[in-house]
Amino acid sequence: MKRKATINDVAKAAGVSKGLVSFALNDRPGVSPETRDRILTVARDLDYRPSLSARSLSTRTSYAFGLVIARDPEILGADPFFPSFIAGVERVLLHEGRALVLSVVADEQHEATVYRTLTADARVDGVFITDLRHDDSRIPLLRELGMPAVTLGRPEGAQHGDADAFPAVCLDDTPGIVAAAQHLIDLGHRRIAHVIGPRRMLHATRRNGAFAATLEAAGLPADLVIETDFTAAQGASATEALLDLADPPTAIVYGNDPMAIAGIGVAHERGLNLPGDLSITGFDDSELARYVYPALTSVRTDPLAWGEAAARTLLRLTTTGVADDVDLEPARVITRSSTGPVRA
Amino acid sequence: MKRKATINDVAKAAGVSKGLVSFALNDRPGVSPETRDRILTVARDLDYRPSLSARSLSTRTSYAFGLVIARDPEILGADPFFPSFIAGVERVLLHEGRALVLSVVADEQHEATVYRTLTADARVDGVFITDLRHDDSRIPLLRELGMPAVTLGRPEGAQHGDADAFPAVCLDDTPGIVAAAQHLIDLGHRRIAHVIGPRRMLHATRRNGAFAATLEAAGLPADLVIETDFTAAQGASATEALLDLADPPTAIVYGNDPMAIAGIGVAHERGLNLPGDLSITGFDDSELARYVYPALTSVRTDPLAWGEAAARTLLRLTTTGVADDVDLEPARVITRSSTGPVRA
DNA sequence: CTGAAAGCGCTTACAG
DNA sequence: CTGAAAGCGCTTACAG
């Protein structure tokens, strides 16, 4: 391991000042084409790579983005969203010389601390905000900290194109949930339950709103709603509670696949026939969905594309100061054999 | 947002040189107690936090660790290991002012590129090596790059306490697989198959060795072994292949839970009764394991503890230059209802 | 025990 | 079009 070449080595070898080397490398005007070529050649020959920490100190830029996830590790492990989302983010950052700094915290208490530390240390140039909540404390916090951010979905109250809002990268999940509900209605179901994620999360209530509207448009009540923390455990107990009802549902729509798969487990344990006695749908269309029995009808989003779009948007925001909202392909239902006609 | 206080502000306010401030803050000898107290008080009053990039430039330290995962996002999403492992890592890094830089790459080709970039940019002070492979190219690569590392498990050929080896943080999985196999043997199974992960991965062959030894010790052949890429898809097709055999197994041991759950799906699809017609075991004991039907017998490891131990070891290695190997509680089998006596 | 200074490796006005 | 210099905010020998 020989010493890494510095800008000084390049400058000396090229017979110019280091300022000029910096200009040439950063594609700034004011360098004659011949000089620029010579500098770039020398830099390549010396295998020169600018020091990140030196650049960071000069430019007050870390060349990294942050993702803070406030979820219990148990839930995180069951949820295929984040790995795919992160893979999408990486796919664009890798080529941009940016790194992803990841923080997993158990609760929303520690979350704020982490954001403050990331800011104080200038560890990242911007952050991704996932799992938007009602009255989300992260929005004012990050604004106060002056930390650029991109939200997954649009926060409450924000209008498309709000001047002072963080850019939003949106993947509308309501068409998926509407399609799932309508699919069940079309199959003749009249009592359809909804097992949702935590109500403090925006998408839980938004999806439930879409669900309820679809049922009501068909003249059906949307009164069977159970809130969970997204764990398979609570998916199972919600299913137990629903099936114990005097007038149990003939179909259950779940907020994620692990809960739906747990629901299948509970139904089988009770000797129910699927989808004959009970239809079940999931959400996220994880790989496992098509391999359980019966194969799970689920709502497909595209976390990888979401990650890519979010990364590109944050990159634009942090480099140019502005970035437009992005709308991705909405979610859609994937029909499999866990849903079927209601029994006569 | 007022300007952040710098070491100069503290020095001026305390009436000392900035060198002394640095000494006081870093707990170095040569500062009188009174002066140190005064400096620390002033620093607190000014809400002073040393600039990370300035420190990094001076000390050639990034105060961050790297984790490069070479897996298809699809597989990653189904596998609960990494989220828990990462949560464990975070739990110790958070209090040590270190950050985790995460890279997800699709294949082992890009892996080397990422390690080179992380090193060239001095983006991290050390890395975690997970999913050890046979003849693992990362070991010589990182040694060549001079990048400190900690391995999860001991690499091939390395002896406990090798002077020049990277510290290994080990969680022995063979007791778990041995117990699973023995459990099936005790239940009277004579034809037991093993659906393993990629053979290039150390743990796949190591576990299969333990599996085979257990069967052979009981006078049983261990000839039914199918290699997969760890996806539920290949777990399902391996199950199909096994059940299509003229003399199919009465029990199948899977290398992870998603494959085992897919196996349950295939068995149910064929109208088999579990565990009457077929016993099934998984690996990792994911949350879902206990909520599928029948509840899945699985092998439990502790990824969270693994993450914590790995982080502490890497921290010690990068700060002191040496770190001992660590042995964690070995894996053990958790018996549930997907395994039962072989049918008469 | 304390201070003044050099150095880490960049970027960026400022002169010429 | 090019050079010399200051500055980013720390750490660390070196003197005293």
Sketch the major β-sheet of chain A.
6 strands, parallel
Strand composition percent of chain A = 5-15%
Tell me the structural class of chain A.
alpha/beta
What is the averaged pLDDT score of chain A?
Answer: 93
Fraction in helix of chain A: 40-55%
Pfam families (chains A, B): LacI, Peripla_BP_3
Organism (chains A, B): Herbiconiux aconitum
Protein name (chains A, B): LacI family transcriptional regulator
InterPro entries (chains A, B): HTH_LacI, LacI/GalR-like_sensor, Lambda_DNA-bd_dom_sf, Peripla_BP_I
Outline the structure in words.
- The structure is a homodimer of 344-residue chains.
- Chain A is α/β, with parallel strands linked by helices and 344 residues long.
- Chain A folds into three domains: 7-50, lambda repressor-like DNA-binding domains (434 Repressor (Amino-terminal Domain), Orthogonal Bundle); 64-171 and 303-330, Rossmann fold, CATH 3.40.50.2300; 174-301, 3-Layer(aba) Sandwich (Rossmann fold), CATH 3.40.50.2300.
- Chain A is built from 13 helices and twelve strands.
- The first copy, chain A, has helices at 7-14, 18-25, 33-45, 52-59, 73-78, 81-93, 108-120, 138-145, 174-186, 202-217, 232-243, 257-269, 303-320; strands spanning 64-70, 99-105, 126-129, 149-152, 168-170, 192-196, 225-227, 251-254, 279-281, 298-300, 326-327, 332-334.
- The first copy, chain A, has a six-stranded parallel sheet with strand order 2-1-3-4-5-11, with helices on both faces.
- Chain A is elongated, with a radius of gyration of 25 Å.
- The N and C termini of chain A lie far apart (76 Å).
- In chain A, 51% of the residues are buried.
- Chains A and B meet through helix 4, helix 5, helix 6, strand 2 and helix 7 of A and helix 4, helix 5, helix 6, strand 2 and helix 7 of B.
- Chain B binds a DNA duplex (16 and 16 nucleotides) through helix 2 and helix 4.
- Chains A, B: Keywords: DNA-binding, Transcription, Transcription regulation.
- Chains A, B: InterPro entries: HTH_LacI, LacI/GalR-like_sensor, Lambda_DNA-bd_dom_sf, Peripla_BP_I.
- Chains A, B: Residues 5-59 form the HTH lacI-type domain.
- Chains A, B: It holds the Pfam family LacI.
- Chains A, B: This is LacI family transcriptional regulator.
